[in-house]
């Protein structure tokens, strides 16, 4: 009896299985499943490779990639909540949509594969995720760690040196003529000023020493006085060069700066502004110099970067005079081409001309100009690759507004900054900026598609 009752129970359960299976098979049909419940809120179509964000919203993988590429923001397209990490495909939801809407999903996947723009966006989005995943375990390793260590060491050394100079009062010896009024020049100052004009001026050092020409007497010299004894400067080009520089001294009241460090001493705030402005926006900065600082800064800069055609046998003093003249049409044409296409090349050529005076500083500037040119080229390539050329006027306007606002803020806040802070900023931009730009260029060249504009 016990075995019979067991068999009856087993048989009853076996007989109930078909009813259970039929009930399970009929569940999808009884539930009211609609396409709206499995639709993407970006394209309003069936989800393809549904990706779930941290906020809980689901989107097609390619829709999320297009949104990330166009907005350059890591946030939900619907609720604007930022997502954490890198979004992954919801496997359970993907399998459900593939089974329920097989034909629609297959059709949409074929359309996505045939669209090169979507394929490029998906590739860039995936590379962004790969870089994000690699940066977490390797954030203290590799080239980034090396460059951060170098920057930290150089910064500490620079700060210690500047603190020592600032606290002990040890100031770098500069040419005192750039701050001493010409009327107070001694005969030794006049001879020093004459020697700075060039090697050709050494010929007339002895007459100036014998006559004990001081600053006041120097201001009274003219073409006739230089031609007569005891000066006897018979060479007309030499006289014109001395008189041209003497006119600049009369106008400024002091000796004009002739190198970077003298320019920094006489124009502390202006030199810091130009250093950062030329790095951020060289075209706008050169245009500013053309409008407001033409004769003192812009004209020598143009003659240095785009020199006039000279004869092979032209003397040094004639070249000196050419830098005080108005540029020719050929010089203007060469300058405008470089200004529009390669503005950083102008800065590199200007630094190259000072190579004999500023050996290492000029090299830092040249390297930095090359790196900035590469970064600008990569930015233009991204605009072209992403078909965002139409956004160029808007970006240019935003850049113009940003530079004007920053320049205005600098003009207001500059008098309140201590000189020590300004020196730190100046030397940081001059010597440490190339090291930072090397890392940026490496990132751009290795993964150009993943860089945000």
Automatic annotation (TrEMBL):
The cellular location(s) given in this protein's UniProt record come to:
Endoplasmic reticulum membrane
Which top EC class applies here? transferase
Q: Which residues form the RING-type domain?
A: 40-80
Q: Where are the transmembrane segments?
A: 145-166, 364-385, 406-430
Biological process according to GO: apoptotic process
Q: In what residue span(s) does the SAM domain sit?
A: 185-252
Recorded hits in Pfam families, A to Z, give: SAM_1, zf-C3HC4_4
Q: What is its EC number?
A: 2.3.2.27
Q: What is its main location?
A: endoplasmic reticulum
Gene3D superfamilies assigned to the protein according to its UniProt record, in alphabetical order = Transcription Factor, Ets-1, Zinc/RING finger domain, C3HC4 (zinc finger)
> Record's Gene Ontology CC terms?
endoplasmic reticulum membrane
Q: How would you describe this protein's topology in the membrane? A: Multi-pass membrane protein
InterPro entries given in the database record: SAM, SAM/pointed_sf, Znf_RING, Znf_RING/FYVE/PHD, Znf_RING_CS
Sample GO molecular function, one term: zinc ion binding
Keyword field:
Apoptosis, Endoplasmic reticulum, Glycoprotein, Membrane, Metal-binding, Transferase, Transmembrane, Transmembrane helix, Ubl conjugation, Zinc, Zinc-finger
Catalyzed reactions per annotation? S-ubiquitinyl-[E2 ubiquitin-conjugating enzyme]-L-cysteine + [acceptor protein]-L-lysine = [E2 ubiquitin-conjugating enzyme]-L-cysteine + N(6)-ubiquitinyl-[acceptor protein]-L-lysine
> What is its quaternary makeup?
Interacts with CASP8, BCL2 and BCL2L1 through SAM domain and also with HIP1, IFT57, ESRRBL1 and BCAP31. Interacts with NGFR; this interaction inhibits NF-kappa-B and JNK-related signaling pathways.
- Job description of the protein: Membrane-bound E3 ubiquitin ligase that plays a role in several processes including apoptosis regulation or reticulum endoplasmic stress. Has anti-apoptotic activity, both for apoptosis triggered via death-receptors and via mitochondrial factors. Contributes to the dynamic control of IRE1/ERN1 signaling during ER stress by inducing BAX inhibitor 1/TMBIM6 proteasomal degradation. Promotes the activation of TGF-beta signaling by mediating the 'Lys-63'-linked ubiquitination of TGFBR1 which is critical to activate the pathway.
Please identify the protein, giving its name as recorded. Answer: Bifunctional apoptosis regulator
């Amino acid at each position: 009896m016990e075995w019979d009752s067991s068999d009856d129970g087993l048989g009853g359960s076996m007989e109930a299985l078909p009813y259970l299976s039929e009930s399970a098979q009929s569940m999808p049909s009884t539930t009211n499943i609609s396409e709206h419940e499995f639709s993407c809120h970006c394209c309003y179509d069936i989800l393809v490779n549904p990706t779930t964000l941290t906020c809980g919203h689901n989107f097609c993988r390619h829709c999320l990639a297009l949104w990330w590429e166009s907005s350059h923001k890591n946030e939900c397209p619907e609720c604007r909540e930022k997502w954490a990490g890198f979004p992954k495909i919801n496997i359970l939801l993907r399998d459900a949509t593939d089974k329920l809407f097989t034909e629609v999903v297959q059709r949409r996947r074929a359309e996505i594969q045939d669209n090169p723009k979507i394929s490029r966006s998906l590739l860039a989005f995936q590379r962004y995720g790969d870089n994000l995943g690699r940066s977490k375990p390797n954030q203290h390793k590799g080239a980034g760690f090396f460059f951060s260590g170098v920057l930290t060491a150089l910064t500490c050394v620079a700060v210690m040196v500047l603190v020592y100079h600032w606290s002990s009062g040890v100031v770098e010896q500069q040419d005192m003529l750039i701050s001493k009024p010409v009327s107070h020049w001694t005969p030794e100052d006049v001879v020093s000023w004459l020697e700075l004009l060039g090697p050709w001026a050494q010929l007339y050092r002895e007459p100036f020493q014998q006559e004990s020409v001081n600053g006041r007497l120097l201001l009274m010299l003219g073409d006739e006085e230089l031609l007569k004894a005891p000066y006897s400067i018979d060479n007309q080009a030499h006289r014109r060069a001395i008189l041209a520089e003497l006119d600049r001294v009369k106008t400024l009241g002091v000796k004009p700066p002739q190198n970077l460090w003298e320019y920094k001493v006489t124009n502390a705030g202006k030199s810091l502004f130009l250093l950062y402005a030329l790095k951020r926006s060289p075209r706008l900065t050169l245009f500013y110099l053309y409008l407001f600082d033409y004769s003192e800064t812009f004209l020598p800069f143009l003659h240095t970067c785009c020199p006039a055609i000279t004869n092979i046998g032209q003397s040094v003093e004639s070249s000196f005079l050419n830098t005080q003249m108005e540029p020719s049409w050929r010089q203007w044409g060469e300058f405008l081409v470089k200004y529009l296409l390669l503005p950083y090349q102008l800065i590199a050529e200007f630094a190259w001309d000072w190579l004999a005076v500023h050996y290492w500083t000029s090299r830092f500037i040249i390297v930095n100009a090359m790196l900035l040119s590469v970064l600008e080229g990569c930015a233009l390539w991204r605009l072209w690759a992403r078909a965002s050329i139409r956004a160029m006027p808007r970006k240019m306007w935003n850049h113009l507004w940003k530079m004007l606002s920053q320049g205005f803020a600098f003009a207001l806040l500059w008098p309140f900054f201590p000189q020590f802070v300004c020196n730190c900023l100046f030397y940081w931009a001059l010597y440490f900026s190339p090291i930072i730009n090397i890392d940026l260029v490496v990132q751009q060249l290795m993964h150009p598609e993943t860089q945000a504009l």
